[in-house]
Specification:
The strands form nine sheets. The protein has an eight-stranded mixed β-barrel. Strands 8-17-12-20-21-24-25-34 form an eight-stranded mixed β-sheet. Helix content is about 10%, strand content about 40%. The chain folds into three domains: about 30-125 and about 135-155, no CATH class; about 160-280, Immunoglobulin-like, CATH 2.60.40; about 285-480, no CATH class. A hairpin with a 2-residue loop joins strand 31 and strand 32 (about 450-455). By secondary structure, it is mainly beta. The longest helix has 19 residues, at about 1-20.
């Protein structure tokens, strides 16, 4: 009987607990529908005349005051949470219908990859202009929006550079380097604007613009899976200075071409700038050398002005005074290299390291264009430390034209880079020590009237040789 009463009591207690326990209810996620469109018809995620076009696969970053989510454009007519579908107008994909569970006022960034924020509480929207891009129009079409009455109107916050190439051997990489001209108001220092990196967009402005933070990148590298004829590159609105370099890389055959801006160019948000096309005949061979820090530099296989990369007189090239963009053929020097003649060149006016300007003083940039330039002193040290050097020639004396050094990459079976002992000119119009010495300019200033050179002879390689700036020396170009 006691057992029976115990069972009754337990059952009563269980019923009491069930009456007191609150019911657990599942609540559905609350979603809402908002619309999206482009404000400027000149920009879009794919090219279609002048009509803005969204495409399936586009991704948008949505941000609220407490959260963020990524929205993907999908096919169909009814989006679910985190999706957007295309709205047709006159048969064109001109807008989007977005479904989201985010509440409150929303901000949006396209492409989604340009925004890594987890929430947004004010009008100062943080984005990134990538220093590594793929050259597609969609990726270069960086825009932002702030919700108003259930609608997102995307406005372009960057400028876009449009580069084309017509070479028979197709370009597969592009490098843009922002470089300045001499600024007389700043003691002839070189000036240049940053073009990529972390930026802030004030969405309270009628025309919001991406403003880069301090110390951002002056370089953008574009690498695409497919070889392209047209490259579109997003950059920060600013003034691109004369000399800004565009390097076109045919990496399959190790050749590099390019072009430069011939004048300052103001680039504004919401505008596409056609930079022009590359001349397919301006290629120059190179070999890539990677140093211990992981930095890779392209070294030209020939001297500036040379017609061959093989040992012999044709590999000598031209001789240049330091900072002078035009040289004289090694085999036919008609004008003496001396202080009197050098006083009329741009290099003679340089009195400190800060005054070197690649757009004015660099013979490699002047002769070959693109991103080619003289090496700095430390880059010759990196070349020696990152390669295996082989001395070419047995009898190092004047008039033996096959002497020099061959530098081979340590990690690869490369043919190497040959540096001939091309001689030099010092205060005369006569070539000296061809076959005995090779002197190559760097862009590194040493002291009054002197700059550093890379010196090679039968017994050593020296990267810290100070040379008289007026004298005639060889040049080997490098590129990023």
């Amino acid at each position: 009987m006691k057992k029976f009463y115990a069972i009754i009591a337990a059952a009563a207690a269980l019923v009491a607990c069930q009456k007191q326990a609150p019911a657990v209810q599942e609540t559905a996620t609350q979603t809402r529908i908002i619309s999206a469109a482009f404000e400027d018809t000149a920009f879009k995620t794919s090219l279609d005349g002048t009509t803005p076009v969204w495409t399936v696969g586009d991704k948008i970053k949505l941000l609220s005051a407490t959260s963020a989510s990524e929205v993907t454009v999908v096919s169909g007519t009814k989006p679910t949470d985190g999706q957007a579908v295309i709205v047709l107008k006159d048969g064109k994909a001109s807008g989007l219908t977005i479904c989201t569970s985010l509440s409150g006022t929303l901000y949006a960034v396209y492409p989604a990859s340009c925004c890594s924020a987890a929430s947004q509480t004010d009008d100062k929207l943080a984005i990134t202009i990538p220093a590594a891009q793929n050259g597609s129009f969609a990726a270069a079409n960086i825009c932002a929006a702030k919700e108003n009455a259930g609608k997102l109107v995307f406005k372009n916050v960057t400028a876009v550079l449009h580069l084309t190439q017509t070479a028979t051997t197709k370009v597969d990489k592009v490098t843009v380097i922002s470089e300045g001209a001499l600024d007389k108001n700043k003691s002839y220092a070189s000036t240049a604007c940053c073009i990529a990196g972390d930026a802030t967009v004030d969405m309270s402005e009628e025309k919001p613009v991406a403003v880069l933070a301090e110390g951002q990148s002056k370089k953008i590298k574009v690498v695409s899976a497919d070889i392209q004829t047209d490259y579109y590159i997003a950059i920060a609105p600013d003034t691109l200075m004369k000399g800004t370099a565009f390097g076109f890389d045919n990496s399959a055959d190790r050749k590099l071409g390019g072009r430069n801006l011939s004048a300052d160019k103001i680039v504004e948000a919401g505008t596409i700038y056609n930079i022009g096309s590359m001349d397919g005949g301006t290629w120059h061979d190179y070999i890539e050398v990677t140093d211990a820090s992981g930095k890779t530099l392209k070294w030209a296989t020939m001297n500036l002005g040379a017609t061959s990369s093989e040992p012999g007189r044709n590999s000598f090239g031209d001789l240049f005074s330091w900072g002078n963009t035009t040289g004289q053929p090694n085999s036919k020097i008609t004008k003496a290299f001396n202080t009197g003649n050098y006083s009329g060149t741009a290099g003679s006016k340089i009195t400190s390291a800060k005054m070197w300007d690649v757009t004015v003083n660099d013979a490699a940039r002047f002769q070959w264009g693109g991103t080619w330039r003289l090496p700095v002193q430390t880059e010759y040290t990196e070349l020696i430390n990152s390669t295996v050097s082989e001395k070419i020639g047995d009898s190092w004396k004047n008039g033996v034209y096959v002497n020099g050094y061959l530098f081979k990459c340590k990690e690869a079976d490369e043919s190497g880079i040959f540096f001939p002992a091309a001689g030099y000119c010092n205060m005369t119009s006569s070539l000296s020590s061809a076959g005995q010495f090779g002197d190559y300019w760097t862009s590194t200033w040493q002291a009054s009237g002197m700059a550093y050179g890379f010196d090679l002879n039968a017994s050593k390689l020296n990267t810290s040789t100070p040379l008289a700036a007026y004298s005639g020396r060889s040049i080997r170009a490098v590129s990023e």
